[in-house]
Write a structure and sequence with these properties.
With 145 residues, this protein is α+β, with helices and mostly antiparallel strands. It has one domain: Thiol Ester Dehydrase, Chain A. It is built from two helices and six strands.
Length: 145
């Protein structure tokens, strides 16, 4: 598939549902954000070694954008590649690329900023070392800024 050659931290394939389309007869823009959200959930599970359990410190979405490149329609399957592109002391910057299998091309690019949040103190928290290690074990130290 064109532009889909890199090894991603998370790669997820999902079917396009008939109900994902809107009156314009293509997948509604909000669905792309849900697809990226599904990839982030996979990322959290990988980051936590297969578990999706958090106690006091949880990851939260602080910011997100999406560039829509090509319309997706039913039937199709999409592939989401999600990568961490920068790790800072208190946040990580992610980039998700969504590909259409039917059209063999990229259809959207989303960037998002994730932070650690203390749900008991109701404030941001330094990014936990175990989470950071999951990313640096995969990418190396070059992503740490």
């Amino acid at each position: 598939m064109k532009d889909n050659n890199s090894k991603a931290y998370v790669a997820l394939e999902l079917p396009v549902q008939w109900g994902d389309m809107d009156a314009a007869k293509h997948v509604n823009n909000t669905i792309y954000l849900r697809w990226i959200e599904s990839a982030r959930i996979e990322m959290f599970q990988k980051m936590k070694k297969g578990r999706f359990e958090f106690e006091e410190i949880v990851p939260i979405l602080a910011w997100q954008d999406c560039k829509y490149v090509f319309p997706v329609t039913f039937p199709d399957n999409i592939i989401i590649n999600l990568d961490i592109i920068e790790v800072l002391d208190d946040r990580v910057l992610c980039e998700g690329k969504i590909y259409s299998k039917k059209h063999e091309r990229i259809v959207a690019i989303s960037k998002s900023l994730l932070m650690a949040y203390n749900i008991k103190e109701l404030k941001k928290h330094p990014f936990p070392q175990a989470w950071r290690k999951s990313f640096t074990d995969f990418y190396g130290e070059s992503i740490v800024k």
